[in-house]
Design goal:
Blueprint lengths: L1 H13 L3 H20 L7 H16 L12 H16 L5 H19 L1
């Protein structure tokens, strides 16, 4: 189940209007945390990545945004694209876009080195 988790998450967010994304991400975070606690899914790259993104967006409201050092590049690109979409729809301030792009650039440079 965990191998398909990210793809399902990506498809869900891509099909939502920007005004619904933040609510969906908050709900997904709660559900995913409960699934992990109840051992309905196993921890892994997809669940760690999705939780990191959910926490990033939750922290964005308070100016506290932290990313893990490792995450698949396709996850990064999707998250950056999603944040850009939310900023353009005025669901997030521009500073969030700047912060995620800076984090992505730092990770991308480490991968390419």
């Amino acid at each position: 189940m965990n191998s398909r988790l990210f793809e399902t998450f990506r498809e869900t967010l891509d099909n939502l209007p920007p005004e619904e994304v933040l609510k969906a991400v908050a709900a997904e975070r709660c559900q995913l945390e409960q699934d992990l606690i109840q051992h309905r899914i196993l921890p892994g790259e997809d669940s760690d990545s999705i939780l990191a993104f959910c926490r990033f967006l939750a922290g964005a409201a308070f100016g506290s945004m932290v990313w893990p050092d490792t995450m698949p590049i396709d996850h990064w690109t999707f998250y950056v694209k999603t944040v850009k979409r939310l900023v353009e729809a005025e669901q997030l301030p521009f500073t969030v876009r700047r912060d995620i792009e800076a984090a992505f650039h730092g990770v991308f440079c480490c991968i390419m080195a």
